[in-house]
Specification:
Strand order of the largest sheet: 3-10-7
Helix content: 25-40%
CATH superfamily of the largest domain: Intergrase catalytic core
CATH class of the largest domain: Mainly Alpha
Distance between the termini: 47 Å
Largest sheet: 3 strands, antiparallel
Length: about 270
């Protein structure tokens, strides 16, 4: 059912940005870049099977903000799946721009082409090699699991898949790379963040372009007693560990690949 693991939020953002920005070798924008990105986002955020997403027609799109559900079919069974209205609005915008009739498929290509397309964009975005097209559905599974740690909830979100299949998705969620806190230090001495997504550690710089990070500062005036920090894995409610930030400290959250860059620079500095 699921091959390879599941994408994290940062990986999904990188994948979609890569698809939207695709260009021909001559530099001209790729005509179907918008369509490809919408397909990938629909699979990920609605948890649709690739074949379900490929079967969506203009007439299946949500009628309005008050009913933001897309109609999909699977083996003769029709169901309605909630999608964020922001995504539904982009789908309608695409339909309008392409002048698609009501009976037209939004994504007129095959499942085989969809798998090849995912591999192309995933490679260009620098995603983990283990990820597959099915890994996108794991993003919707993770969202459902975060809302309520229920196997049946994940099963329903992914189109009433079997409990065994839902459990495989959950296992993949729990196996996601941790987003770790890799540095705690006096914020006014060792670490600063700039608008160019660059981390400065002493005289060394680590570029953070295309990565996901968060910067939390415990300032003495706002937090004179310090802060408690809980570290959690994607899809899990209970913290893996708990830490404490003293006043005047800062903490940087990085994805594992970039964390290794930071640790290497820190090692050279020490």
């Amino acid at each position: 059912m699921i091959k390879g693991g599941t994408v994290t939020r940062a990986e999904l953002r990188s994948l979609l940005a890569t698809a939207r920005g695709r260009r021909h070798r001559a530099g001209a924008p790729y005509r179907h870049a918008r369509r490809d990105a919408l397909f990938l986002e629909l699979v990920a955020r609605a948890g649709l099977r690739p074949s379900e997403a490929l079967g969506v027609r203009t007439q299946d799109l949500p009628p309005g903000r008050d009913d933001s559900r897309v109609a999909v079919s699977w083996h003769g069974t029709r169901r309605y799946v909630d999608v964020p209205w922001s995504l539904a609005a982009r789908l309608w915008s695409y339909v309008t721009a392409e002048s698609l009739p009501l009976e037209a498929r939004l994504f007129p290509f095959t499942v085989f082409t969809a798998h090849r397309m995912f591999r192309l964009y995933a490679h260009a975005a620098g995603l983990r090699d283990v990820l597959k097209l099915d890994s996108l559905r794991g993003y919707a599974a993770a969202q459902a699991w975060r809302r309520q740690a229920s196997v049946l909830g994940v099963s329903a979100r992914l189109g009433n898949i079997s409990v065994a299949a839902a459990q495989r998705f959950i296992s993949a969620i729990e196996a996601q790379p941790d987003v770790e806190a890799v540095a705690v230090c006096p914020s006014h001495e060792s670490m600063t963040m700039s608008d160019t997504n660059e981390l400065k550690l002493g005289e060394s710089n680590v570029e953070l372009m295309g990565t996901h990070f968060e910067f939390l500062e415990c300032t003495p005036d706002r937090h004179p007693l310090g802060l408690r920090v809980d570290f959690t894995r994607p899809g899990e409610l209970a913290p893996v560990r708990t830490g404490f930030m003293p006043p005047g400290s800062a903490i940087l959250f990085l994805t594992p690949a970039v964390a290794q860059q930071f640790k290497a620079v820190a090692k050279r500095k020490t």
